[in-house]
Amino acid sequence: MSTEIRVPTLGESVTEATVATWFKKPGDSVAVDEMLCELETDKVTVEVPAPAAGVLADIVANEGETVGVDALLGMISESGNAGPEEPAPRKTEAPAEEPEATDAGGETMPVMVPTLGESVSEATVATWFKKEGDSFEADEMLCELETDKVSVEVPAPAAGTLTKILAKEGETVEAGGQLAEMTSGKGGAAKPAKSEEAPAASAPASSGGKDVEDAPSAKKAMAEAGLSADQVTGTGKDGRIMKDDVAKALSATKSAPSAPAAAPRAPSPADDAAREERVKMTRLRQTIAKRLKDSQNTAAMLTTYNEVDMTEVMALRKQYKDEFEKKHGARLGFMSFFTKACVHALKEVPDVNAEIDGTDVVYKNYVHMGIAAGTPQGLVVPVIRDVDSMSFAEIEKAIAEKGKRARDGKLSMAEMQGGTFTISNGGVYGSLMSSPILNPPQSGILGMHKIQDRPMVVNGEIKIRPMMYLALSYDHRIVDGKGAVTFLVRVKEALEDPRRLLMDL
Fold first, then answer.
1. Which of 86, 218, 363, 483 has the maximum number of C-beta atoms within 10 A of its C-beta?
2. Which spans does this entry mark as compositional bias, Low complexity (predicted)?
3. Identified catalytic residue from 70, 480, 497, 504
């Protein structure tokens, strides 16, 4: 009896992923829920557990291949790996004696653009791994394409020789378009001779001279950082370079002592040009830039500001934080106060918690709060669902758990979608004032900033108070100025007198 291993749900709007690493090989025994392989999307890493116990009989999608949701990755069987052993010898036997082999005829075949995913109609040719005249085996990677969301590696449809490249690096190709022409039947015979020469030629392209393909996300990260593969130590299977390896190498490079300065001399434009590096933006980075600008162009975004005296919240936290942590097992931070204050204000100004859908306004009778969190890979916004029905302790536990999963890169796509309002705390990085950008289709985002002691006039006297600037960016198409100001004033009032939260005032 065989059990299929299929691609799990990757999250809303994510239709495909790249097979990054197989932890098992055909013939290995596996237990139920044991990790079989790891997939990479443009945002998160997804681990695929074994759906049943048995033996990994076959791997259908190899490392580096792009797969869609519910696509077949492999098979698990209780009868061992007899299935995948049959095709392996046929690759090494003489092609002329295999009448059923299609790669022995020497016919011209097209290399086509694979399915790019729903709503993705074009891609850019990023890298050709083979040049005209090179031979290869079936499923060996020929080139890599970049789309708006993910990198797509194009495998060889059969063993053969690359005869003509039709779409060169940097060119844009349509879904279903032709990339190159190949002649089948020559790659299988030429491969053994080529494999003896390959190590010397491929050594600079991979860490330690290993003939492995690095993760697509790692290649893009190296290109953006200006690092070569020999500057990064791969921790993946067979020395494969992963995205985290690039981050570590970049961090080590920044922390290394600078070289002694050269002797002063007259600068020249040529010297500056020699020290510059021009790297083409990846399609993913271009899409991020485009969508951020689209957010400004689509929404009538406006920001209103206020300031809050944090004296009462800080005193309340100082008084109860030890008892709170002892009882609930979670630290009492400021985020639960701000979350509660925002929920309180959203009830009074529901427009800030609504969104525009065509010519309709969709009012949300619930609050799914997005909490922006910084990670080594960048800013992510995990969503705490139904936060309006949660206690202070439940909010603090959820924020701590989501924050840890974000830093570990374990958030799923589902955990970062569906938010109705967002809080961004730039104060942890020292920001005194900023204007946050909306996260469409949300209509509001609250920016928190640094708590700083400032002289304030209190009852006619100058007092030193811990003050924080607040910024609310909102979509003026749906939220009027009065509603935005009212929202921010209600947040300010709730924080300056937390008892109002208990009294629902």
1. 218
2. 198-209, 248-271
3. 480
